[in-house]
Amino acid sequence: MDDILLLEAIENYLSGKMSAEERAYFENLRKTTPEIDQMVVEHGMFLQQMDTYAAHRNLKHHLHEAHIKLIETGEITENPSQTTKAKVIQLWRKYKRVATIAASVGGVIALVISVVVVAVSPAPNNRAVTELSRKVDNLQKKTDALNTEVRKSKIPESITQTNNGSSFLIDTRGFILTNAHVVQGLSNVVVVNSRGEEFKARIISVDGSKDLALLKIDDEDFQSPSSLPYNFKRTASDLAEEIYTLGYPRNTIVYNQGYMSALTGFNGDTLSYQLSVTANPGNSGGPVLNKNGEIIGVLSGRQEQAEGVVFAVRTKAIHRFIDQVKKADTSLEKIKLPTASSLKGKDRPQQIKQLQEYVYQVKAF
User: Fold this and answer.
1) DSSP-derived secondary structure for 307-340
2) Helix axis angle, 3-15 relative to 83-120, nearest 10°?
3) What is the pTM of this model?
4) Would you call 256 exposed, middle or buried from its count of C-beta atoms within 10 A (0-12, 13-18, 19+)?
């Protein structure tokens, strides 16, 4: 579809100018084409920003009119020596706003065109989704060691390569969730908390079809928390819903913020979400949360040919995975996912302070 026609269609869709038949066709197109769905979400957010700007501009206009009336009635006076300076400042502010809006519009147009190009360009290979685990060689391990507190590592010095990812506690007794591709084919695991403390862990179960793996911390140095501050959301999330992630693309925990761009994953996968958020190798297995501190998924991969298009395994897949694990091993029947969140109503920095100690870096070898 021509990019101008596509933008016109999105405008008509968002403004409700489409007929019932056209709207049904376009909504089906959104479900089957994640790139178009992402464009709709981004364009809707852009229009909201433009409306906000218009409201601010109208408010300033009314304040200016009120100011003039007060001067005319003599209720306030201006300093004549500052008149010229004020005019210069007003002129600058006037053109500064114009330049800002022009730059914003130009940026959005460039973004939309780049997404359209991605949508119509052929994929260079069959691997369209990149897993977000990362490989760390011996040289990187030594470099990282210089940047962290010196403590005896629980990873043998003879190890030449480590697969890194992220994970988080799902049960206070040390059960941890991550992606299958982070640990698949490996037998030894060490997890590291936000304070740099290492704990030995073992792999309990791996499900490649869901890209989920369950680990268990088995280390005398580990102290079980009394509770977890988050819960797993059971209902579906909404398009454009704000989300955020925590993970370990490097040796310190990293926060990223984005939004829900599609309710299905790659090629319409109903067990995944598509997110618009920054993610890098090492983020695999990290939790995805909403503003209430509810976990809505596990970060798993990103689309190679589209910047910022990331996928997460939905919580309904997590519940199915844990149920399967319990049925396969009766000794794990007591695993209980947290059902209440103490993060709701708190601002984001407060949420992160409570969350970060339950998110772990995974080093598998």
Assistant:
1) TTEEEEEEHHHHHHHHHHHHHH-GGGTT------
2) 110
3) 0.63
4) buried
Measured distance CA(272)–CA(265) in Å, rounded: 5
CA angle in degrees (0–180, nearest 5) for 72-74-76 = 100
Phi, psi at 94, each rounded to 5°:
-60, -50
Residue 333 has which token pair? 């029947």
Identify the pLDDT of residue 329.
95
Residue 323 burial class via C-beta count within 10 angstroms: exposed 0-12, middle 13-18, buried 19 and up:
exposed
Q: What distance in Å separates the CA atoms of residue 36 and residue 10, rounded to the nearest whole number?
A: 9
Nearest to 320 by CA among 265, 271, 275: 271
Under 8 Å CB-to-CB from 200, ≥6 apart: which residues? Answer: 154, 189, 190, 217, 218, 219
Q: List phi, psi (to 5°) of 308.
A: 80, 5
d(CA 56, CA 101): 13
Q: Token digits for 240?
A: 């454009």
Structure tokens at 306: 């589209």
Supply 273's token pair: 């979400």
Q: What is the DSSP letter of 237?
A: P
Residue found under tokens 């409700």: 16
Give me the helices (H) in the chain, please: 3-15, 20-32, 34-72, 83-120, 138-146, 180-183, 315-328, 348-355
Distance set, CA 296 to CA 59, 178, 238, 273 (Å): 39, 14, 11, 9
Cβ neighbors of 210 (< 8 A, separation 6 or more) are: 180, 271, 313, 317, 320, 321
The predicted structure's pLDDT at residue 129 = 73
Q: Indicate if the alpha-carbon torsion angle 8, 13, 15, 19 is positive or negative.
A: positive
For the chain, residues with pLDDT lower than 70 are 1-3, 34, 45, 48-49, 52-56, 61-62, 64, 67, 70-72, 74-128, 132-151, 160-161
Degrees, nearest 5: CA angle 260-264-267 = 130
- Residue 17 has a pLDDT of 85
Contact 246, 255 (CB under 8 A): yes
Position 11 scores a pLDDT of: 80
